[in-house]
């Protein structure tokens, strides 16, 4: 495959795998560090990868989201949901193991007027379809 096709395929996969969150509250302030914020996903959505390797939208009551900020300012995001998995086995996706075979696949996260770009994410889908998504964001990941 020529290099242009590989580049275009990589860019398409990166643009497809954008996570978008509508109207999540701002992150905890420094004096509220270590506090976990728990959300139902009403009126919000996340684009993730299911156990079959397909892009899937997790919307509203389909998922549970926990955001924790450390004293150093790092943010941990954990999301759980039930998704399709017809493979009969667990699946693990990350920046270097994904359905599009793109090394360093980037996820973008947007909320409260800020955006982060990171390769520090992981999705695990059990054989029964329980999805667990985890991402760690640092100040270096913030793009605006």
Write the layout of secondary structure elements.
Elements: H1 3-16, E1 36-49, E2 55-69, E3 75-82, E4 91-94, E5 107-111, E6 114-118, E7 121-125, E8 130-137
Antiparallel strand pairs: 1-2, 2-3, 3-8, 4-7, 5-6, 7-8
Write a structural description.
- The chain has 144 residues and is mostly beta strands.
- The chain has one domain.
- Helices cover 10% and strands 44% of the residues.
- A six-stranded antiparallel β-sheet has the order 1-2-3-8-7-4, with no helix packed on it.
- β7 (121-125) and β8 (130-137) form a beta hairpin.
- Residues 1-33 have low confidence and may be disordered.
Task: Explain briefly what this protein structure is.
The protein has 144 residues and is mainly beta. The chain is 10% helix and 44% strand. The termini are far apart.
Give the integer mean of the pLDDT values: 75
Largest sheet entry:
6 strands, antiparallel
The strand order across the widest sheet is: 1-2-3-8-7-4
Distance between the termini: 35 Å
String of helices and strands: HEEEEEEEE
Ranges where pLDDT stays below 50 over 5 or more residues in a row are 1-33
Keywords summarizing the entry:
single chain, 144 residues, mainly beta, six-stranded antiparallel β-sheet, globular
